[in-house]
Amino acid sequence: MERILVGIHSPDTSFWAGVHALNLAKRIGARVSFLLVVDRVLGSTGHSDKEIETSLRKKIESLIEEGRSEGIAVDYYLTYGNFESELIRFSQENKVTLLVVESPRGKATEHFSSLLEKIRHRINCRIEVVHEKPALSSSHGEKEKKKRR
Which domains does the chain have, with CATH numbers? Predict the structure, then answer.
């Protein structure tokens, strides 16, 4: 059985990686594991670590419920530490066949590329990077309506 790991670290994640993993798991009959890695750096946003952790947990639990209601085997794990180290450790210990991570927004992409390169050399599975879907603007919809007239 395929084992998909969704690594979640950032408090401003859009959870597209989780949605992608659940959709893929439904098609291929895979098991999905969500790994939330909490780092002490999260508190720098002005919120307490517990508030951020609770917010992320609620969103993840919502995805898990949705997946389970569709018959997908879903697990949830919470760990404290370094994102890179925890992804590598979990992937190796649980024989993960696919790691799914979300591409960060903005300036964090350079650091993310370096992170992926380090992880890639230490795990024995494929890696998929999911990019956030852009929202359709209402002006785009208006243009389409005008074209049809």
Answer: 3-148 (3.40.50.620)
